[in-house]
Amino acid sequence: MRPCDPRIDASVAIEFKETLAELVADGHRKIIFDLEEVDFMDSTGLSAVVCVLKLVGAEGFVALSSPGETVLSLLKLTQMDKVFAVYSKLEDALAMAT
Question: Average of pLDDT values for 36-60?
Answer without folding.
Answer: 92
